[in-house]
Automatic annotation (TrEMBL):
This is BAH domain-containing protein. Residues 1-60 are annotated as: Disordered. It comes from the Eukaryota. GO terms for biological process: chromatin organization. It is found in: Nucleus. InterPro entries: GATAD1. It comes from Rodentolepis nana (Dwarf tapeworm). GO terms for cellular component: nucleus. GO terms for molecular function: zinc ion binding. Residues 48-59 have a biased composition (Polar residues). Keywords: Metal-binding, Nucleus, Zinc, Zinc-finger.
Length: 192
C-alpha cells in the first residue's frame, strides 16, 4: 500500500467522491414528478435582494435607500459675457455715452466716454472707454464738453469701480464733424 497517501485516510475512488457530493438527504424516489409542480411561497435569496434594491414598492426598500437620492449630473459653468446699454452702480444708473472721470496715481484727472458695459458670468461690471483729449481752449481742471475732442478707443475693459460719474452726454456727441454718416443713422437696404 505505498500509494503516497497517508495511511489514516480511507481509500475512496474518485467516482465515489462525485456520488457523495451529488447525494441529498432525499432520494429521487421520494419525489412525485407526475403531477403539477407545487410553487413555493418563499422567494429565492437572489430575488429577495433584487426586491430590496430595485423594486418600486417602497415598503420593501431598506431604510438606507429611503434617504438616498439619485445624483444629478450638472454641466460645468459656461464662460459667458453680456453687453448692456446701462448699468446700476452705487446708486447711479450709468448709460452708454456718459462722461466719467479717472484719476491716476499722481492725482491727475482724465475724462472718457463710456462705449459699452460688459457683465461677466460672476456679475462683475466692466466698461469700455473712449478717451477725451483736451484742446488748446481747455483751461484749468474744470471739464467742458466743447473743449474736448474724441481720442483713442480702448479695447481693454476696465472695472466699473475705476471710474466716477461726471456728466450725461449723448453717445454721438463727440463724433467727428466731417464724418459722412451719423451714429445710428444707418438704414438697412431692405426697408428702402
Amino acid at each position: 500500500m505505498s500509494t503516497g497517501k497517508p495511511s489514516s485516510l480511507p481509500d475512496i475512488q474518485p467516482s465515489d467522491r462525485a456520488c457523495k457530493r451529488k447525494r441529498t438527504a432525499r432520494m429521487d424516489a421520494d419525489f412525485d414528478f407526475t403531477g403539477p409542480a407545487k410553487k413555493t411561497l418563499r422567494t429565492r435569496g437572489t430575488n429577495r435582494q433584487k426586491s430590496f434594491n430595485g423594486s418600486a414598492n417602497s415598503k420593501l426598500k431598506s431604510r438606507r435607500q429611503l434617504f438616498k437620492s439619485n445624483p444629478i449630473k450638472i454641466s460645468p459653468a459656461k464662460p459667458c459675457i453680456r453687453l448692456e446699454t446701462r448699468y446700476f452702480h452705487r446708486g447711479i444708473w450709468y448709460q452708454i455715452g456718459d462722461i466719467v472721470s479717472l484719476t491716476d496715481t499722481d492725482g491727475d484727472e482724465y475724462y472718457a466716454q463710456i462705449r459699452t458695459f460688459i457683465i461677466d458670468s460672476h456679475e462683475d461690471a466692466h466698461v469700455v472707454l473712449t478717451w477725451l483729449v483736451p484742446t488748446v481752449e481747455a483751461k484749468g481742471k474744470k471739464f467742458e464738453a466743447s473743449n474736448y475732442v474724441i481720442g483713442m478707443e480702448e479695447d481693454i475693459p476696465r472695472r466699473i469701480e475705476c471710474v466716477a460719474f461726471y456728466a450725461r452726454c449723448p453717445s454721438d456727441y463727440f463724433r467727428p464733424v466731417d464724418s459722412p454718416y451719423t451714429v445710428g443713422s444707418w438704414i438697412p437696404p431692405e426697408s428702402l
